[in-house]
Amino acid sequence: MNGLRAIPRNGHAGGVAAGTSSLSRLTLVIAALLATVCGPHESVGESTFILATGRRLPYLYAISLDRAIAPANDNTPNAIVGRAKVALDRLDGQLLGDPANLVVSEDGGTVYVVNHHGAIDNVEFRQHGGRGMIAVLDVDAVLDPENDRTANALRRHLDSGGFGALGVVLLQDMLIVGNAENHLTEDGGNRISFIDRRTGSLRGTVELALGSPGFACEEYPVPYVAPYGPPRNLAVLAPGPGLGCFPNPNGLALGRASDGSEYVFSANGGTNDVSVISLARALEGDRLAEVNRIPMEVGPWGITATPEGRHVIVANGGSQRENRSGNVISIIDVDRASAADEDAEVARVLVGSDDPREQTHPLILSVTPDGREVIVPNVRANNVSIVDLDLALAGEHAEVARIPLRRADGRPARPKGSAVTSDGRYAVISGGPGSQPFSEETGYVYVIDLRSRTVVGTVTGVGNDPYNLALVRR
After folding, report:
1. Could you tell me if 456 and 342 lie in one domain?
2. Stated pTM of the model
């Protein structure tokens, strides 16, 4: 944000002094005219940029929203202003990194990019369970076209404290990171790390309880004590015979109870449930700060909270225990969840299809800034659902729109990530199936006008199997 304030369209600037000069008055008039003609998503001098993780093609993509919705740029890569490397090249010149998730600092100046398996070569590393790493990039440098396809924006790396890093939550001085996997295996993750944002120091760890119905995981002590730990007692390749013992935390969200206490919610794809973690206890160093576990439909993956934090919304995506995907989002009441009430899940909404048997695979969802609607990309249904939160909580039909996504090449859209502009006007969606060679820029970003419920811009050439997105204003 640059701090400029748009002049109201009635011409009043909120108390302009009577002695204002003619030049100053002219400046105010020009500013008022600019405020009138500027697009609804920006104020005078401000533009919105999309940051998208390129996943198998390890760049962070910076995209101009203005250019993305310009008709002349539809179905082109013209809106891309830069591609920032999320790791230094290997000594032989090979690109490294596996950017899946991201979060932007409070001032919009820094972006933390979660490299799911660290600084790896996606062609050579086809297994799960790489050591997670956080790339710290300067946003202004990311947006500078002169830095395109360079590492000039990269400032440092932070170790995630585990394997298969994915979920991330921003605290004032720390990052909370979910480690969804174990060494060289998709199964075996149960650790939430607390990492100092300034130094990268690992400040603490919460270990989630093991086991789920039908799986008693007695060999592995929680909290961890030597000589137990990765990869002991685990199959090297997942799924192994014990798949279902470990929660495998995917997305993370921060909820707030009515008394002001805060809780970290973890979407657990291995045990088909959501963990509730007391933030206060975790920050006191309690490794067993998990206070509740809420059963879900199948494979919780994406998770987010409403602006005030009173509700947490979970996408039941794909199970890490069995070969099936979900088709609902679940709404959790934070007060009930923190009190370990059995009815903490207060609503379920079928998304992406009218057929309850269809596996639509909802993934990374977002809530509009006013807290009224949930934006849900459905990977297997190739569409985006818009869910009215009030209708969902009232038990009524809540999917108020379903927007199909298409590609010019006829391949499935496979939408995954989502974000909403600060004014609530546009939703941006990442999509595209991964394809080889990974060097091909086959990913798309779609811009949806939430008023008309239509796609108003499509950006091509955004990574390979791109995942999450964030928005910044400059």
Report:
1. yes
2. 0.89
